[in-house]
């Protein structure tokens, strides 16, 4: 059932119910008022006739000629008043005289019977059933009851005014029903338009269009509905925008990871090829370096070609060292991980770089927190990583010198090796690429030292971080997961 039909039925029901109730009360009052008036008039007529009837009635019955005489009296009464019947009964209830313009029979009965008071329902039944008002008066002779005079008013006289009131009430009810339906139509239009706008906006949300904001109507209830819809539309738009941003972010991450995987796959393939090539090239360089050393030993010190051979030997050694570092980075070696403290590994790396640091006027310091937990580590791989960080720091501070502070401490379930130098620092652009293979800012750098550091840290399940600003030195932090302390078994 539609809202329009519900409103129409509601207004019609309210109108009919209220009009019917008011009309019923008015009709009952009108019928009751008419009855009371007719009862009083009928009683007065019967009382006036009773004085004439008293001369013709005795306790033992009617006198001879009473019927003709009383019929004449009743005839004049019927002509003067709108009566259906008028009759006289004796003490025994026998009809003595009867006048009825409608030719109705006169009802016999004892003179003591009088009509009881009527209920509202009985009074309203007179609108339907053709029944008049019967009233009367006792006939007394020397104070003794000898009969009664009865009069019967016509049905139309009783309910005529009530029927006219009913018809006028029906017309008024019809008018109010039509007016109520018109009001219901206006009310429905006032409700339907905002509701339809909400429905259209909801369909727009279903089509994933931008969230609409509806104008607030004047009615408080509809204002609350539209306000709630606007709030829902705003939240849906925010959620949709957030989801789109998340989808775009995830797609970007997937794209980046896919590119990284493809790049790593290509690098792995290239690394395998390059490792084989570097191995063969390293062998050739070792041969060249060996023969150069033999020739240099046999040449006299003043030989003019000896400086050139020294340069060949030096560059050959440099190329061989580069090949060895590349092989360390590219070769897929099996890590020998064992539980061990990190202090000896770090201390050895700092001691190895000590002479080069002293020669470059770099002061080194090592601070180790006592009671550090062990780590699961490949000592050789981590030693190479720590040595690369120390060498890079010393080279960055040459020739002016500086300070290299190395710390080893525990932090949030990890053992951290920290390398802080007072060198020139790293530019912001270069900071994003320092751990990439073959990226370097040094004239003679290979770009593999920090790549090896990151590879070693990630192999051990750790991370490497860098903080630096130009002119404020650099800070490298290698974070490795600490082993959980072993618990003793309780017997």
From TrEMBL:
InterPro entries: 2C_sensor_his_kinase, HAMP_dom, HATPase_C_sf, HATPase_dom, His_kinase_dom, HisK_dim/P_dom, HisK_dim/P_sf, Sig_transdc_His_kin-like_C. Its EC number is 2.7.13.3. Gene3D superfamilies: 1.10.287.130, 6.10.340.10, Histidine kinase-like ATPase, C-terminal domain. Keywords: ATP-binding, Cell membrane, Coiled coil, Hydrolase, Kinase, Magnesium, Manganese, Membrane, Nucleotide-binding, Phosphoprotein, Protein phosphatase, Stress response, Transferase, Two-component regulatory system, Virulence. It is a multi-pass membrane protein. Its main location: membrane. Residues 276-484 form the Histidine kinase domain. It comes from the Bacteria. Its cofactor is Mn(2+); Mg(2+). It is found in: Cell membrane. CDD domains: HATPase, HisKA. GO terms for cellular component: plasma membrane. Residues 189-241 form the HAMP domain. One of its GO terms (molecular function) is ATP binding. Residues 233-260 form a coiled coil. It catalyses: ATP + protein L-histidine = ADP + protein N-phospho-L-histidine. This is Signal transduction histidine-protein kinase/phosphatase MprB. It comes from Anaeromyxobacter diazotrophicus. The lineage of its organism: Bacteria, Pseudomonadati, Myxococcota, Myxococcia, Myxococcales.
